[in-house]
């Protein structure tokens, strides 16, 4: 039997559709809450139901607008703490600022650590997230962090693409992730070597591996401006790939991303719903969204019932 009180799900405004899917899988309803703005732009948060002693899960991706959604999350955590919730878990399917996890230039912040401190001070007891950009961010928290892998839901769809697959990493840094997918699928691995010329600017240089006649799946943890992804996809098509598919956990899709993907060699772009698609992406027939609602629901059920969460990593 769980030690905590009643299981309750609360959502911010970042991704209410995902929160609803999680509730559908758990067989419960969203706990009523008010998340709005005051006339001067400040965020207004109120919990509509009694949560005293309950096990509460706040679903809120810190995607664009990042600072607004992050502040919204922290205010909700603080409201729950002051309402005497028994345990508060921040379910952050997409963790913003994760790419700033170390100092790469002098006199720069380590933003991921600061965001972890924000969330901790706000009153969180546990964090649940999906495909952190850097695994070491778990160490930035002095609270338990469960970093789930979207591979649990993405692999099932990728298998249906065909038997002649090859997994491609768009850069050397993503090789470990691509190798894990390739191993699970029992297929080959290729790497696109690139050089980064600046923030959000990359230039693909050469291909390591043979993709001729293969269905090449370019795998990354996120698609931001899609510069890296589209250059890799176009290179694979030029090197004889039968079909080229993009696959990522987080559809950040900032700036010219959707336009680049629409004009690229990719036949489809597979993403999850950790971030809701913007209007431009929704109007494109290239995008295929796989929900992580069931995966998060299983993790929430196991945490609430004091069962093992690690079984979801296998």
Automatic annotation (TrEMBL):
Its EC number is 2.7.6.1. Mg(2+) binds at residues 133, 171. D-ribose 5-phosphate binds at residues 196, 220, 224-228. Keywords: ATP-binding, Cytoplasm, Kinase, Magnesium, Metal-binding, Nucleotide biosynthesis, Nucleotide-binding, Transferase. The gene is prs. Involved in the biosynthesis of the central metabolite phospho-alpha-D-ribosyl-1-pyrophosphate (PRPP) via the transfer of pyrophosphoryl group from ATP to 1-hydroxyl of ribose-5-phosphate (Rib-5-P). Belongs to the ribose-phosphate pyrophosphokinase family. Class I subfamily. SMART domains: Pribosyltran_N. The active site is at residue 194. Pathway: Metabolic intermediate biosynthesis; 5-phospho-alpha-D-ribose 1-diphosphate biosynthesis; 5-phospho-alpha-D-ribose 1-diphosphate from D-ribose 5-phosphate (route I): step 1/1. PROSITE patterns: PRPP_SYNTHASE (PS00114). This is Ribose-phosphate pyrophosphokinase. CDD domains: PRTases_typeI (cd06223). ATP binds at residues 40-42, 99-100. InterPro entries: PRib_PP_synth_CS (IPR000842), Pribosyltran_N (IPR029099), PRTase-like (IPR029057), PRTase_dom (IPR000836), Rib-P_diPkinase (IPR005946), Rib-P_diPkinase_bac (IPR037515). The keyword ATP-binding applies. NCBIfam families: PRK01259.1, ribP_PPkin.
């Amino acid at each position: 039997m769980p030690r905590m009180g009643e299981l309750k799900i609360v959502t911010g405004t970042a991704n209410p559709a995902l929160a609803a899917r999680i509730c559908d899988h758990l067989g419960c309803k969203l706990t009523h809450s008010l998340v709005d703005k005051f006339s001067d732009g400040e965020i207004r948060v109120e919990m509509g139901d009694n949560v005293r002693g309950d096990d509460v899960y706040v679903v809120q991706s810190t995607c664009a607008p990042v600072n607004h959604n992050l502040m919204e999350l922290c205010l909700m955590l603080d409201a729950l703490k002051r309402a005497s919730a028994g345990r508060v878990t921040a379910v952050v399917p997409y963790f913003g600022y994760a790419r700033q996890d170390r100092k790469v230039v002098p006199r720069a912040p380590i933003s991921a650590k600061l965001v972890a401190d924000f969330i901790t001070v706000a009153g969180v007891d546990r964090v649940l997230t999906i495909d952190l950009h850097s695994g070491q961010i778990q160490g930035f928290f002095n609270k338990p962090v469960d970093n789930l892998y979207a591979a649990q839901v993405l692999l099932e769809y990728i298998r249906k693409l065909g038997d002649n697959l090859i997994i491609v990493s768009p850069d050397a840094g993503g090789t470990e992730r691509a190798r894990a997918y390739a191993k699970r699928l029992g297929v080959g691995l290729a790497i696109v070597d690139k050089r980064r010329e600046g923030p959000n600017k990359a230039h693909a240089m050469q291909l390591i591996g043979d993709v001729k006649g293969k269905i090449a799946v370019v795998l990354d943890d996120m698609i931001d401006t899609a510069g890296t992804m589209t250059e890799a996809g176009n290179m694979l098509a030029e090197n004889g790939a039968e079909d080229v598919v993009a696959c990522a956990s987080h559809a950040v899709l900032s700036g010219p991303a959707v336009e680049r993907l629409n004009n690229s060699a990719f036949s489809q772009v597979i993403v999850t719903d950790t971030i809701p698609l913007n209007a431009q992406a929704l109007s494109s027939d290239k995008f295929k969204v796989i929900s992580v609602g069931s995966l998060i629901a299983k993790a929430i059920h196991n945490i609430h019932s004091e069962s093992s969460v690690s079984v979801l990593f296998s």
